[in-house]
Amino acid sequence: MSSLFIDRLTKRFGEFTALDSMSFEVGSGEIFGFVGSNGAGKTTTMRIVLGVLSADSGQVSWQGRPLDLVSRRTVGYMPEERGLYPRMTVGEQLVYLARLHGLARSSATDAMERWTERLGIADRQTDEVMRLSLGNQQRVQLAAALIHQPDILVLDEPFSGLDPVAVDVMSEVLREQADRGVPVLFSSHQLDLVERLCDRVGIVRAGRMEADGTIEELRATAVPRWELVSDAAPAGWAGSVTGVRVVSEDGPRTVVETGIDGADQQALAAALAYGPVRAFGPVRPSLTELFRHVVSEPTPRPRTGGPDTPAPSGPLGGTS
Amino acid sequence: MSARSERSTVWLIASRELRARLLSKSFIWTTTVLVVIVVAGGLVLNLAQRSSTASDVSVGLTPQSAASAPLLAALSKASGLEVTTEEVSEDAGTRSVRDGDLDALLIPTDDGYRVVVDEALDTRLSAILTSLAGQRVLGEQITALGGDPASVNAAVAGAVVDVDRLKPAEEVDGGQVVAGYLAGILLFMALMTCGQLITQGVVEEKTSRVVEVLLATVRPWQLLVGKISGIGGVGLVQVLAVVAASVGSALGFGLLDGTSLDLGAAAGWTVLWFLVGFTLFAIALAAAASLVSRQEDVGSVTGPIMTLMVIPYAIGVSIGPWDPNNPLMVWMSYLPFCSPLVMPIRVAVGGAGTGEALIALAINLAVIPLLIWLAARIYGNAVLHTGGRLRLRTALGGRAA
Ligand SMILES: Nc1ncnc2c1ncn2[C@@H]1O[C@H](COP(=O)(O)OP(=O)(O)OP(=O)(O)O)[C@@H](O)[C@H]1O
Ligand SMILES: [Mg+2]
Questions:
Q1: Interhelix angle for B220-252 vs B25-53, to 10°?
Q2: For chain A, how far is it from start to end, CA to CA, in angstroms?
Q3: Which ligand is nearest to the CA of B385?
Q4: DSSP 3-state assignment of A128?
């Protein structure tokens, strides 16, 4: 299979620019976590990928060609606002959606049996969707996205509303699909989950891809942090060390950010001058911290750019 | 996508609608109720007809008045009332009148007749008997003048007035009026029901957001056409059921005696006009419904279209069956959206011929492509828009989300 390319998508709603040259790539067999503040443009991007919204400029391509209605039939989609016929039974609904994606009746029925079994809703096949709990409706929605054996998966906040067991099942299913070679794009606000599950992560802000890459790559771009534990050093000891900014100080535990190479060693030396240092080492920022860092930077550009705003280098979004 | 799979997509959507609605309780109920009403109506008409033809009048004649029997028969034949006579004694006859076995007992008196009735004398019988009394007096005078009263009476009774109509009769034909009514009411009800199914269906897909899942694989027009054809099929089943019930009871109960109603044409046109009217209204209603996201708001956008259905219907059934060529009726029967509700009434009543109906049909069909173009545009732009009501101009302009 091939990568899914999102190439310089721009979308305006009236005067408001929701997407501003949004670009990234989801590789074949890769789980890509799409994170960003509320209103950053994740849903808008996914809707454009699915063609339910049209972009003002830019394109989405797959296997070297723009994604059109025919190739979109091979996409599995889970919209942010869940959508199922409330009065249709789970089984009928899934078979219907599978057939709309081009499956024959018998294979649609087989797939329905398989996925309801897999997602733990086999005993609800003959129930109307509206009689199911929210989480179970969510499982039906996931089954609807998977039932036609899609070649691309686009899931908008698939984990919201799921219980821990369902989260595990969902994670497993996404990994399985990726192992089949499917590019999996999903958005989430549960960053610990994204960190655990995703091969690569993209952080969006104000309609732009601010940072994307593996977690390690994102960490590499962050300002290095160090943690130092010393009972002897007085409060505020690190304030005077050049090239060092104190992030937090909690009793003996101090976290500093170093702006220049070697500043960490200077901080260590300064602490040692007061007495013994019990621990010293780099702090690996969590995705949550990276995320906070990215979205808390002052807005680099006004949000009312045009489609002719210069694009970041290459199809991959620039890093901050 | 190949034409074939596009068609199969539309078919899939249509068949889902068909299945979901045909099996719904409300559909089964309304259709059953309509059929039952039509059959029951036929039965009532049949009974009414039978009792009116069975209203032959039986008159008892005493031995003294028995000689009047042939004259009475001749007079009653001329007046169109069937009178049977029976010879009885005065006492027995009076009893029969009281029991209702006889309608009247005729007893000759010196200067005419005495008539014994239970409550009131049938007005037509009264006229016949008055004329019989006159004939009797006349007969006596003729005898006195030496003539033969029998031959004079026979000649008088047989005299006919030939009516030469300069204008063809515009008399009201009961069968046609009933058919006109029925066509009007049935079309209105079917269009109304199906129109509601359309708006409900469109808004339900918007409210439940399933439309986003659907539009990720099908085009808006496929969804629109599939939905309209599916619900149209449901409506057609209903209309066919009611038309079949009407035709069946008309034939079965012998309601067609004495009417010049062309039952086949009336039924055929009703079905055809349902299809045309449904297409027009369904397209317009689907586009209008796509502007809103909640069932509560449907009325505000579909109101004007529903008015377009209610007004022609109200005028059609109140004037149509009696005065099918009223200028308002004629004018409306050619107007798109109004024709389907008015023309079938005119055709059933005999006010319009096939030629006129075909012209109206052509006018209505000609509007459909334009309507489809507009509706596809509005629907495509509006159906994914959530939140408040979308302004029509925004939807037409294509700037909506
Ligand atoms: N139909 C619309 N009309 C006007 N503005 C819109 C429309 N759809 C989205 N927007 C705006 O575009 C921006 C991006 O919205 P989007 O739904 O893509 O955000 P998101 O990243 O998915 O946020 P969340 O995490 O809350 O789901 C928002 O500011 C939103 O208000
Ligand atoms: Mg969103």
A1: 20
A2: 30
A3: 1
A4: strand
Calculate the alpha carbon distances from A275 to A233, A237, A242, A282, B99 in Å. Answer: 7, 12, 20, 20, 133
Mean pLDDT lowest among A277-281, A289-293, B45-49: B45-49
**Nearest-CB residue to A79 (from B1, B213, B401):** B213
Residue B71 contacts residue B132 (beta carbons within 8 Å): yes
Distance from C-alpha of B384 to C-alpha of B278, rounded to nearest angstrom: 25
Give, using CA atoms, the residue closest to atom 3 of ligand 1. Answer: A13
pLDDT score for A319? 39
User: Could you tell me how many residues make up chain B?
Assistant: 401
For residue B47 the two structure tokens come to: 């009974």
Q: What is the whole-number distance in angstroms between the Cα of residue A55 and the centre of ligand 2?
A: 16
Least confident stretch, B4-8, B170-174, B378-382 = B170-174
Q: Which of B211, B213, B219 sits opposite A97 (nearest CB)?
A: B213
The alpha-carbon gap from A298 to the nearest alpha carbon of chain B, in Å, equals 29
Token pair of B330 as six digits? 């004629």
Q: Inter-chain contact A72–B216, Cβ cutoff 8 Å?
A: yes
B356: amino acid identity, one letter: E
ipTM, 2 dp: 0.77
pTM: 0.74
Residue A4 and residue A50: Cα distance in Å, rounded? 12
% of chain B residues with pLDDT over 70: 87
Question: How far is the centre of ligand 2, averaged over its atoms, from the C-alpha of A36 (Å)?
Answer: 9
Q: Does B200 touch chain A (CB under 8 A)?
A: no
Buried b / exposed e over A83-95, threshold 16 CB at 10 Å, is bbbbebbbbbbbb
**What pLDDT is stored for residue B127 in this prediction?**
78
| pLDDT, tens digit (0-9, with 9 covering 90-100), for B359-372 | 999 999 999 999 98
Cβ-based neighbours of A318, under 8 Å, separated by 6 or more: A209, A210, A312
Instruction: Give residue A156 CA to ligand 2 midpoint distance, Å.
Output: 7
Return residues 7-66 of B near A (CB < 8 Å): 9, 12-13, 16, 20
Q: Please give the structure tokens belonging to residue A167.
A: 């989260």
Q: What is the distance of C-alpha B339 from the center of its chain?
A: 16
Cβ–ligand 1 contact at A36 (below 6 Å): yes
Q: How far is CA A128 from CA A13, A97, A113, A229, in A?
A: 36, 15, 16, 59
Residue A233 CB contacts under 8 Å (≥ 6 apart), including other chains:
A252, A254, A270, A271, A274, A275
Alpha helices, DSSP H, located in B256-319: 263-289, 298-319
CA distances from B326 to A135, B229, B329 (A): 63, 35, 5
Token readout for B45 is 């008409």
Neighbours of ion ligand 2 (CB under 5 A): A 42-43, 80
Query: In terms of Cα–Cα distance, which of A222, A266, A259 is closest to A240?
Result: A266
Q: Which residues contact A110 (CB under 8 A, 6 or more apart)?
A: none
